[in-house]
Amino acid sequence: MSFADSIMKPATLGRIGVKNRIIRSATCMAGADEKTGNPTPKLIEKYKELAKGGVGLIITGHAYVNSNGKASPRQLSISSDDNISGLANLVSEAHGTGCPMIVQISHAGAFSITAEDGVALAPSDVKNPMTGRPCKGMTISEIHSLITDFAKAAQRAKVSNADGVQLHLAHGFLLTQFLSPIFNKRKDGYGGEDILKRARIVFEILEEIRYRTGEDFPLWVKISVTEGANEGYSSLEGIRLAQELARVKVDAIEVSGGTFYGDKNLSPSRTGIIAGKNEGYFAEEASAIRERVGKATQVILVGGLRSQESMVNLFDRGTAEAFSLSRPLIAEPDLVNRWASGDGEPAECISCNACSRTAKVGIVYCPVMRDAAEGIWAPPPEC
């Protein structure tokens, strides 16, 4: 099938109607108010630009569900009812262009920046593998409170008129840490040798979200199908987890992988991606998941997608039903409109990860494309 007849056709994904099968994957844009976590006018304008750029659906950058789960400066918050109005404004701007929006909800756990002067929460008493700082294992009471915080966050997303929520189980944040044998050494009901036992908190969060938001509110998850770290969980375990997520009727599973503390060659944001050669680096795992979950739960692939041809081939092979992009849409917010116009050239993103460093100075942007637009020539930044 052609790109226009497959990827660009309207569809229903995870119970949400979309105009095409290209999704803006959750990307922390570092544009929220530092004190409140509410989206600033500049951040809202960035999301509006994305929505106008033609994507079928936007997943917001991860929003922290309580104050001790903040991962980075100027991150979105969904931890208080005071955040509802700002989120509603953000959603309204996307809807005004005909683009649905999902809010991704998260907790940083061992990597929380709010614990710089204290001890970060984690599944067990372990050391942060990146900093060596000790982490405090959560009590049962703290786990139960966290489950409630996630569910209340989902309620706030629903009140803000978002089209659904996505639970962030990927890339090394707290729920990944519960899945991980590196972080989760618990001997009680929230730990164990089997990943499904370590995932108990995930299933309890999903159950509580369903209870508080109703069966009709779309509930998606994003998973790292493999931890990508020594002594971490494997892709076989991640695939088993995805099967169980489908069994409890999550509406869509976005398949990513790796963590920021694991092997860089297995990370979720890899460098050296060349259109038509090494795109879609989690495609094999996504295909295995789709074979096992059936039609009730839809599979979305993210990671190194750059060309129409690769997405069409993956779609035709049944690897996934939709495709998520992040870095290409930082470089070209109107990429999907360009493709829809008949320009079949791959995304201009060179996969250098320079955009990730711009979060320190303001809302995330692509310095390579900015310099090109200003007529400045510079070699690609070091990766």
From TrEMBL:
Keywords from the UniProt entry: Flavoprotein, Oxidoreductase
InterPro entries with a match to the protein in the record: Aldolase_TIM, NADH_flavin_oxidoreductase, OxRdtase_FMN_N
Keyword Oxidoreductase: yes
KW Oxidoreductase (keyword) present: yes
Residue ranges the record marks as coiled coil: none
Pfam families assigned to the protein according to its UniProt record, in alphabetical order: Oxidored_FMN (PF00724)
First and last residue of the signal peptide: none
Organism the protein comes from: Acetomicrobium thermoterrenum DSM 13490
Molecular-function GO terms, alphabetical: FMN binding; oxidoreductase activity
Protein name: 2,4-dienoyl-CoA reductase
